[in-house]
């Protein structure tokens, strides 16, 4: 344990070139023993960290819901490797490795914020049999924002 409610575990993900990259995944866990009420997995935006959920976590913990706040590679406290692209392929592997390593099997609710909403949607789809809910806070748009749309379109 690094500090109160922060834990780490070694995981590896494959980058876009197929290279296996070892990382130290640091996550917040309000109840490492689990909860019969369920587990909420917080996926932050970019930039961001588990601290993006600092006002939500105590409310969930108070009613017996386990909260796991994942820190993506290079953000928060998790390690980083320059060979990463930080794309959905890598981010989704990272989330799934944490879920699998913690042996999370039921009553999962994915809570995504901003850039993390894409990954929350994908994690819920990947874990349909385990998922009870999906919450999207300030989700990304489904169309290209006019501010970044090329002028020729």
UniProtKB/TrEMBL annotation:
InterPro entries found in the cross-reference section: AB_hydrolase_fold (IPR029058), DUF1057 (IPR010463)
SUPFAM superfamilies noted in UniProt: alpha/beta-Hydrolases
Gene3D superfamilies per UniProt: alpha/beta hydrolase
PANTHER family per UniProt: AB HYDROLASE-1 DOMAIN-CONTAINING PROTEIN, PROTEIN CBG21859
Protein name (Swiss-Prot/TrEMBL): AB hydrolase-1 domain-containing protein
Natural source organism: Panagrolaimus davidi
